[in-house]
Amino acid sequence: MVKPIEKASLKSSVPTRVAGTGIAAPDLRSTVQSLAKGFRVLEAFTADTPELTMSEVGLAAGLDPGTAHRMLATLVSLGYVVKIPETKRFRLTLKVLDLGFNALAHQDMRAIVRPYLRDLVGHLGEAASFAVLEGPDVLYIERVRAGAIRLGVDIRVGSTLPAHISAIGQSMLAFLSEPDMKRIIIADANRTHSYQDKRSVSDVMPALRKIRKKGYALAPSTLTEGLRIIAVPVLDADGHPVGAISVAAPAVRATIEEFEASALEPVRAAAKDIARALEASGSTSF
User: Fold this and answer.
1) 253 or 280, which is more confident
2) For the ranges 5-9, 49-53, 183-187, which has the lowest average pLDDT?
3) Is pLDDT above 50 for 14?
4) Are 169 and 143 in contact (CB under 8 A)?
5) Spatial distance between the Cα atoms of 105 and 88, rounded to a whole number of angstroms
6) Which of 177, 233, 179, 169 is nearest to 201 (CA)?
7) In terms of CATH architecture, what is 98-188+195-285?
8) DSSP label at residue 196
9) What is the mean pLDDT of residues 160-187?
10) Which of 99, 151, 157, 204 has its CA 20 to 30 A from that of 68?
């Protein structure tokens, strides 16, 4: 007797498709359904229907009234949706644009900084990076290495780490205004990380003052032994750090004085050129 195929096994053996694309939909077991529902709510608002009631949102997003209510309440609290006063209608806020603009800004920055990083690597024969501050963290936007060189640290495009424990992060923190610095201290105060360097932002304040006076950071890597980092901030016309460049080199290749003498001026020149390029492109607002 042939055992009948169970419905569950049949369902799991046939991948579903995203409507109209021919692309297999992701396994629902590996997705966050509440997040998906939140995006469906955002997508319910269109140029033709910029304002919707809660019931209209639920209908467009395929959600029951209770779920639509919770999703809208969450998005309102996060600032992505606003309830129109004296009505029962909702609309998107301009904060939604930040999601797209931030991605575009990253791409613009990568295209601008990549040639300068390549020149630095060609001149110094090491590895060069460009990063920006994202809250209390450093976000690496671009990184160029000399050939297949490995410096013992796994930093890639998109990597983040606490800004105050890295030379490239410190070079930017040193040039923040006092209000911005206070926000960084508050944001970092109650979090933990897995890096060995457990200093707080307040602990590195003396070092930040020295970096601001010199205009650059030069220090051993806190992530990998035997590696030196020199980092120069990319400052806009108001002296605000819109990013920073760093060059890494193994300590065995040269003394710290030799490394500074060979790398500082090329990195400084690249930082100034990038600042002018970003200003001309309008990307410094990121």
Assistant:
1) 253
2) 5-9
3) no
4) no
5) 35
6) 169
7) 2-Layer Sandwich (3.30)
8) S
9) 90
10) 99
Residue 169 one-letter amino acid: G
Which residue in this structure is represented by tokens 């920073």?
Answer: 244
| Domain boundaries of the chain, sorted by first residue | 15-93, 98-188+195-285
| Beta strands at 51-53 and 217-220: parallel, antiparallel or unpaired | unpaired
In this chain, the answer to whether the domains covering 15-93 and 98-188+195-285 adopt an identical fold is no
Query: Which backbone phi and psi does 2 adopt, to 5 degrees?
Result: -80, 125
What is the spatial distance between Cα 24 and Cα 21, in angstroms, rounded to a whole number? 8
Q: Distance (Å, rounded) from C-alpha 201 to C-alpha 195?
A: 14
Helix axes 33-44, 54-61, angle to 10 degrees: 120
Residue 227 to residue 220: CA distance in whole angstroms: 6
CA trace torsion 45, 50, 53, 59 (10° rounding): -30
Architecture in CATH for domain 15-93: Orthogonal Bundle (1.10)
Place of tokens 């926000």: 183
